[in-house]
Structure formats: structure tokens, C-alpha cells
Amino acid sequence: QVQLVESGGGLVQPGGSLRLSCAASGSIFSSNYMYWYRQAPGKQRELVATVTSDGRTDYVESVKGRFTISRDSAKNTMYLQMDSLKPEDTAVYYCNVPPSRATRYINVWGQGTLVTVSS
Question: What letter would DSSP give residue 29?
Fold first, then answer.
């Protein structure tokens, strides 16, 4: 079974930090690319961060310098460390692994975890 399970969301004040986790089942973690997306109320889902199997990363401009994506193959888990959070970071965050042999050619999404940045 291919599955992603997210955790770590919650309510945080502006300027605070949260770390999201995405636990992967089966062979998914051998995928080359893994992503974090987010969807704010009334907006389209956007790609926030990318990590490859060899550790290369990329970020949307609005989170550069504040968010850090990483993956731990020993734990089959991907992370998103979010620092200096802003109200505009409020969204449901999803981890994603695109279709590949490792996912049995399924586009795999987590269930989402809500991040609310508010005072």
C-alpha cells in the first residue's frame, strides 16, 4: 500500500516555528522527487518546496530563507521546518510524491495538515 501521513500542523503566533512531518509507507521513499504543497482558503494549491533523493532542494520565493525541506531515508520521513511564520503562511499543507515506479505510478497525496498563523 502506498501512503503518506502528515503531522505537525497547528496554531502558531507570527514569528513562530513549526515542523511538519510526512511519513511514507512502502517503497515510496525511494522516489526521486518529493514535494510539499499548500492551499490557503479560496486559493489554488501551490508548490512550496521540493527535495530530491540526492538532497537538492528548491523553494517558492515567498518561503526562501524561512522554510527548510529535508528527508530522512532511515525513517522514511520527509520534513518541512517552517520558521519566521507569517499570517499569509496559513494553509493546509500536503506532502506529495508524483507517479513513478516507486509509487506504482500513483500520484500519492497525504491527507493534509492545517497550519494557522495568528495572534
Answer: G
